[in-house]
Structure prediction request, 135 residues.
Amino acid sequence: MLYVTRREVFSAAHRLHNPELTDEENARLFGKCNNPNWHGHNYTLEVVVAGKINPTTGYVIDINNLKKIIRKNVIEKLDHKNLNTDVEFLRGVIPSSENIAKAIWDELEDKIPEGKLYSVKIYETENNYVEYKGE
Ligand code: NI
Prediction:
């Protein structure tokens, strides 16, 4: 098995807030990430596709095509957006890195034309990342 990774970056605003909790509970739980007027991150996304080499191309997946699929379905919908209010596929979830990674997986899983989606990583900072590999 071979693993092909495409990295993309996007900038977005969010607020971690659970509407089922009180303002005090939210502030205690999420700290500065609960600031009412949003804050931003420069996110890095890594998408890994696993598969065998196609003998005709020598590729697992045409990575230029993978780039286009990620940009069209994910990056264009997230970049310079408010993740709480602007993104259809994040509607109703707390936009933590965990939920973002899972939602991106769900957006991409059936759109990978060669190989299989293997993992989605979201870096919220250089030091913190979440990886999702499906159920
Ligand atoms: Ni944040």
